[in-house]
Structure formats: structure tokens, C-alpha cells
# Entry
Amino acid sequence: MDEILTAAEMESRFVAEWVLVENPQTNDALEVHSGVVRYHSKDRDEVYRKAVELRPTRFAVLYTGSIPKDAAVVL
# Structure
């Protein structure tokens, strides 16, 4: 898949999945606006393994689902 998608398109095509985005276009806050989807899966570890395999120079990993209210997010 070499098509550039917006973040909204990624969210609608890959519902509740982890998405590996190559050459992401970001804003000043580093929020992804668009990029090339290289891989997607419901399994986060699978996406990270694919990133190691592909070795993209610049990439982001997004989750398109909602985070449960009782979950902690560490940045």
C-alpha cells in the first residue's frame, strides 16, 4: 500500500487497529495528519515486529480505537 492517507481515512479503514505509518506528516505537536500506511493489525506487537523488519527511516504507530477509561497512558 503506497497510498497517502489522512488520519481520518486511517481511522475509518482500520477500526480499532494499530497502524504503522511511514513518513508521517505532523503538526507542531507531532500529531499525525497523514502518511503512507505500511502495515496494520489488531495485534500491537505484530505491528512493531513489522516496523523492525521494514526499518522505515521515519515512522509513527497509531491506534485507531478508543482507550478504555481505566487505562493509564505513559508518554
Q: What stands out?
A: DSSP finds two helices and four strands in the chain. Helices lie at 7-13, 44-54. The first helix runs from residue 7 to 13. The chain has a mean pLDDT of 94.
